[in-house]
Amino acid sequence: MKVLIADDDQISRLITKAAVEQSGHECIVALDGDQAWELYQLHRPEAVVTDLMMPGMNGLDLCRTIRSSEGDSYTYLILVTSHGSRDDVLAGMEAGADDYVTKPLDPFNLRIRLLAAQRITSLHADLARYRSALTEQARTDPLTKLHNRLKLTEDLAELHSLSDRYGQEYCLAMVDVDNFKSYNDLYGHQAGDAALVEIAATLAAEVRENDGVYRFGGEEFLLVLRGQGASSAEGVMERVRSAVHALDIEHSGDPDGVLTISAGVAAHSHEHPAGTEQLLKDADLALYAAKASGRNRVAVASAPPTD
């Protein structure tokens, strides 16, 4: 465990440092509250042992500042007081301290509190990992392991805001697996699931790392192509379409004899600054046009006429 100690008294610092290191922890030393705050931001220690009265930022202010900056992490705060008065202890706890020790410092008492600090911070770290895993799970399609519509909504809102601010273009591509209902009828839903997983992996492999691939629902996928205009996005989707065709997933109910995809592309640009809902509608209409014209092809939404 990484422990930051903050004390303007040299003797107290040496005693505290020795107790921390004898407990097997890494020790970072600050000579006052301001330096302690700087070192905290740099090292993010799991525990802080701070004197109450120091030049610059005092122990109470340091506790409050650390607590307001933690986010998902948790720092165990131990306040060192000169007399252990009730008022000092209460003020420390209200400022965010977890425990306190009194001067002159008893190394044994500090080591006991560091044991508690290690347990508490370990539990908080576990909880943070669980929360992160649950957050990721809520935004992931369980079958294909692609992001789902919840994550799409969040990512589109962020991307659209950045695009409006900096004038960056991007494209949405709505993708649908052709004749998929008949594939399920012929080969069964288990085979259908396996085909969707394989197609999803191919979609993800054919675009750049900073692009996004999402399962939109059923056999539909949505690709977010950053920094792409309509023409370049059409080229990307032709490559994606060819890659899926090359999988050679047999489908006797399809005119091509294999599973194929159709795609509709809609562009957000300076000339066509549509909102995300309109872009999704445009991409869906383009997909419908691709389906109507024979499937296994890419169609691009027409830009609205300009005055």
Give an overview in words.
The chain is an alpha/beta fold and 307 residues long. The protein contains 10 helices and 10 strands. The strands form 2 sheets. A 5-stranded parallel beta sheet has the order 2-1-3-4-5, sandwiched between helices. Strands 7-8-6-9-10 form a 5-stranded mixed beta sheet, sandwiched between helices. Helix 2 runs parallel beside helix 3 (59-69), helix 7 packs across helix 8 (189-206) and helix 8 crosses helix 9 (230-245).
Write down the secondary-structure element order.
EHEHEHEHEHHEHHEEHEHE
Helix-and-strand structural type: alpha/beta
Please tell me what the overall shape is.
elongated
How many distinct beta strands?
A: 10
Short description:
The chain is built from 10 helices and 10 strands. By secondary structure, the protein is an alpha/beta fold.
